[in-house]
Amino acid sequence: MTPPRAQTDKPLPPPFPLYEEEFAADPHSAYARMRTDHGPLVPVELAPDVPATLVIGYAEALQVLRDEYRFPADPRAWQRTVPDSCPVKPMMEWRPNAIRSQGAEHARYREANTAAIDAVDEHKLQDLVERISHRAVAGFRQAGQADLLTQFAWPLTFQVLSDLLGCPDSIGHRIADGMNKLFDGGDTAIRGNEILGRAVAELVALKRHRPGPDITSRLIAHPARLDDTEMSHQIVTLYGAGIEPVVNLITNTVLTLLTDADFSGDVHAGDASVREALDFVLYRDPPLANFCFAYPPHPVSLGGYFLPAHQPVVISMAGCNNDPALGDPHNASGNRAHLAWSAGPHACPARSQAYLIAEGAITHLLDALPEMELACAPRELTWRPGPFHRALAHLPVVFPRVDQ
User: Rounded mean pLDDT of 113-140?
Assistant: First the structure.
């Protein structure tokens, strides 16, 4: 069921498929067409025969994100109507965590997560990012070429997050594999959910037996007294928010620094601000392009549109940030009013740490390889299909070989 406009008899185009490669290749043109055809609320399909409403209007998105009564995050009524074979169900289904709950339940989970994350020593985190960045670059700097996604952004982010969570590599690699499969969607998402569940259960059991100075142990010790099932789902959430989005933030920002005319000249002159580039990417190409989900418990009206009960309402952070009402994102340097971290009661509690990891990693990379260039034309890069992320498949670069 599509969200019909109020006070108009004009027929609307069919739902827009967000899962196709054409959308991944050029989402900004797609958002422009959506805006022309539909306005700020767009009927879409997250997978074949999985309808949703995509919010691409900034003002409308804030209304949804700040109104838990009309737009709760609990998907249980929706998921009862969706078969287990649905490729996006593992990503969207109910879990006992802050993202999929509301009211007192949401407060309990969020307080535990916020306390565990806020206890991270950011000076030590900066040192950790520097050490791991140095080790990653040392692994390929003599080759004169690298895939920055597989050889830098992914292993760095994985290692930093595993250290923060106190997760040994033997478990962490399986968690990362499961999470990647979840974001890719399709048949692999179901398998990814299974891999993820088993691996995080092992981590929780390990930290109950051998606690340490890490986020997982602090969650276990929190007065919320999370049981094993709840603990596993907190870890799933932290890994989901900590790997894929941060990897994409790093690679999307490096790509911008190497190719965007407003940044690339300054990079080679040593004048570019990594922070300005991060702000631009968080506006223009946020790593989670379409993600925050709400499920109206009854039909609601929003901005002249009627939204059906229990059907997903998805916030397009990319679409909303590029709403023409906000102006040109090229002029967004230093402005953090974007929705890349969400907003309202479900805003990301780890944005400071994520920003620190991305900024530290990119700064080290540019300092270590100041003459780095993209190894192909930008149009030759491949963007991974999927309704939720803005993610490169690879980021190949070349640079003068550097002797150790």
Answer: 97
